[in-house]
């Protein structure tokens, strides 16, 4: 994240627990809005009022919204991410887990969870608890813009085998165990829950939210959640 904030181009790797590697650019964390994917560009138009950016990274979304005049709070578990955000001018950024949100009631009008961050906690029951807490700290007309993916929309045999493995382990097809590698550093293994729109809708409805609309191209999508 610090390298991204400094404009240093490099590659990092996301390793899945079956050995599959995905190569990504550090500069993805600082892309201007014209270089975002179409789904995020469409969804971000719904952002309003005070904003909480969960998993803010190097501030790609938070700084864009701050520059539009929104009051934005960014949170991330990675100290380097919070440092990068502050280096780039985000006024309010904190090291904080989405499992331990520490804000008063009705603080935010919009919650951003781009980059598959809807599933950061992995476990469905933990996601429900998170959504309930987001319900508490958002205003009566608050919204969530949540990024995820419909994993079954693929013909990649590697992904399909992984889905079958999850089913054999009595786990959701979209539950992924992964870790990040960069410049010789290796992160701990974590679980990420990729939820289909139907799964997101079910989790939302158990938490006081409703999936109002979605922007989708193939598997990836951004869902707009409103209070039910």
Describe the structure.
It is a single chain. Helix content is 27%, strand content 31%. The chain has helices at residues 2-5, 38-43, 60-67, 79-87, 124-137, 157-168, 197-205, and strands at 11-16, 21-25, 51-54, 72-76, 93-95, 108-113, 138-149, 175-182, 185-186, 190-193, 209-216, 220-227. The protein has a seven-stranded mixed sheet, sandwiched between helices. Strands 1, 2, 8, 9 and 10 form a five-stranded antiparallel sheet that branches. The mean pLDDT is 97.
How would you describe this structure in keywords?
27% helix; alpha/beta; single chain; Rossmann fold; seven-stranded mixed sheet; 228 residues
Which geometry do the CA atoms define? globular
In terms of structural class, how would the helical and strand content be classed? alpha/beta
Number of strands: 12
Q: What is the assigned CATH homologous superfamily?
A: Vaccinia Virus protein VP39
Domain count, please report it. 1
Strand arrangement across the biggest beta sheet: 5-4-3-6-7-12-11
**Helix content percent band:** 25-40%
How many angstroms does the end-to-end distance come to?
36 Å
Give average pLDDT, whole number.
97
**What's the quaternary structure here?**
single chain
Beta-strand percent range: 25-35%
Radius of gyration: 17 Å
The ordered H/E elements are: HEEHEHEHEEHEHEEEHEE
CATH top level class name? Alpha Beta
The residue ranges in which pLDDT falls below 50 over 5 or more consecutive positions are none
Please work out how many helical segments DSSP would assign: 7
